Structure to design on (223 residues):
């Protein structure tokens, strides 16, 4: 069975510093993995996706994630955060029956 | 291309009533999925429709139902509303089994 665990429910960083949002997954085969962002009172926006091509995936707004099979991880990073990045971030694994399985979310706070 | 649209954006109902939410997918997308988002339970999958057929279903009671029309537009219906049905209902569309693109959601409040 597939599952996804976001290791931090809240992360606070200072503006201009790097950010790391951690995600571990469980999958019995090569998974498809996604990161979505949700700003307050908005829908979910796709940041990036991994579908068994390059292990380092670049997304929108300077975000990137690295697929590490040995660690079953798909952590999201950004070298320099902005106030506008404050939002909730969801890691998602797509199951064999093509259901999306969402993590519980990480709320990112950016301090001025 | 226009994105996923959901109507209405906000809705207030009372317990026992029923409600219908609508979702128009991105042009050309044939799969529509519905999710419920609440602070306590997070994002939970309701069901997915593809070419007018329900392809996947989550663990929700029969009060929650959906359908998809030949133009891929989808509706979900909740009957006999309960206070706990208050949530943000999100719709997502995809080409088939590909990346899902989400709409802005419908905020349902049950009083």
């Amino acid at each position: 069975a597939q599952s996804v665990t976001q290791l931090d429910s809240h992360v606070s960083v200072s503006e201009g510093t790097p950010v790391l949002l951690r995600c571990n997954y469980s999958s019995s085969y090569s998974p498809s993995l996604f990161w979505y962002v949700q700003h307050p009172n908005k829908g979910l926006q796709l940041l990036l996706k991994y579908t068994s091509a390059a292990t380092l995936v670049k997304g929108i707004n300077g975000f990137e994630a690295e697929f590490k099979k040995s660690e079953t991880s798909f952590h999201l990073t950004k070298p320099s955060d902005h106030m506008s990045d404050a939002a909730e971030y969801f890691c998602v694994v797509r199951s064999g029956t093509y259901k999306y399985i969402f993590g519980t979310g990480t709320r990112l706070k950016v301090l001025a | 291309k226009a994105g996923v649209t959901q109507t209405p954006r906000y809705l207030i109902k009372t317990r026992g009533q029923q409600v219908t939410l609508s979702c128009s997918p991105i042009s050309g997308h044939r799969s529509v999925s519905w999710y419920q988002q609440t602070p306590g339970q997070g994002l939970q999958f309701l069901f997915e429709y593809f070419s007018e057929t329900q392809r996947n279903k989550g663990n929700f009671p029969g009060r929650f139902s959906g359908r998809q029309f030949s133009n891929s537009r989808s509706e979900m219906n909740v009957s006999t509303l309960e206070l706990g049905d208050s949530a943000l209902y999100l719709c997502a569309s995809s080409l088939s089994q590909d990346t899902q693109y989400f709409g802005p959601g419908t905020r349902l409040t049950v009083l």
Q: What stands out?
A: Chain A has a mean pLDDT of 91.
